[in-house]
Specification:
- One of its GO terms (molecular function) is nucleotide binding.
- This is Gfo/Idh/MocA family oxidoreductase.
- It is a single chain.
- With 344 residues, this protein is of the alpha/beta class.
- The chain folds into two domains: 135 residues, 3-Layer(aba) Sandwich (Rossmann fold), CATH 3.40.50.720; 173 residues, Dihydrodipicolinate Reductase, domain 2.
- It is 37% helix and 27% strand.
- It is built from ten helices and 15 strands.
- The strands form two sheets. A nine-stranded mixed β-sheet has the order 14-13-12-11-7-10-9-8-15. A six-stranded parallel β-sheet has the order 3-2-1-4-5-6, sandwiched between helices.
Amino acid sequence: MTETSKIRIRISNKLRWGILGCANIAVEAVMPAIAASELNVLEAVASRDVAKGRAVAERFGIAKAYGSYEELLRDPDIDAVYIPLPNHLHKEWTIKAAEAGKHVLCEKPIALNAREAEEMAEACARAGVVLAEAFMYRHHPRIDTILGLVRGGEIGELRAIRGSFTFNNAEDHANIRLRPEWGGGSLYDVGVYPLTAARLITGSEPEAVTVHALFSPEHGNVDMMASGLVEFAGGVSLAFDCGMWADYRNTLEIVGTKGRIEVPESFKPEPGTPDCIVYANGQRRVIEPSPVNQYSLQADDFARAVFGETPQRFAPDDAVKNMRLVEACLLSARERRRVTLGNQ
């Protein structure tokens, strides 16, 4: 990105966004949040279905609707793009966006594997643009609260983490999550949440994983359910499960030697959900809910990184490490064996 471009963004006082595609996550969650955020504005939307793109643009009062992603990337008034495309397209369009001088917020998982993530990070570094993986929950203030409780010793020494994220879309056979070549499956879709949370809470990288999964022939042979153990140093572990063919659950529990922390609706909290519940010293303490939109906070944190006001909270290297862990989990599930990280 040129110095002139940086100055232009600064003067505008808003990061101007283009949205590549009209996926449900974009239209129902991310776009409304960008529109409601402090430092961002929706400038354009692109869809290969022109009518759909225009309808979305009209809904949000966006002046520009493009019939191709390439057209949007050529727009000089776009500073950053959000990519909610199917997983197998993340690498292609992140690199094209970077080459066009656009900052990139890419939906999770950032890629299909660690090598793709590395190539995306390298392309963005060469272009001098910010790249971030869209894990909105990490921008919620409850995360800093939880990390403070754990690192401050309120629950003693960390012993174990338990996390679950499941839902049931088994009847939706046309869903892109059921296409293995597109990066379908529950580990890619929702397993990444407890996996990233464990890495964040422990502040370290895992040593090994063992995962058992249900690969369903009637659902493209993607993993419709997976349960696993992720080993960290010092005997700490994450026991997790994720699925697309199970009752809805969205939970996280952090266990220490002197207490524990429950995080209700851990990754997608509903309004009024407590930030967390702390059990320590024989007492139960409820941390009251923070009335925030975590998607808006994600957009504002991204904008501050682009403006150079604050360091990027989660650099691209974090996304690469996350993909290494996901790869190891998938390998373990497919080959029915324990996989050591760094020796897959």
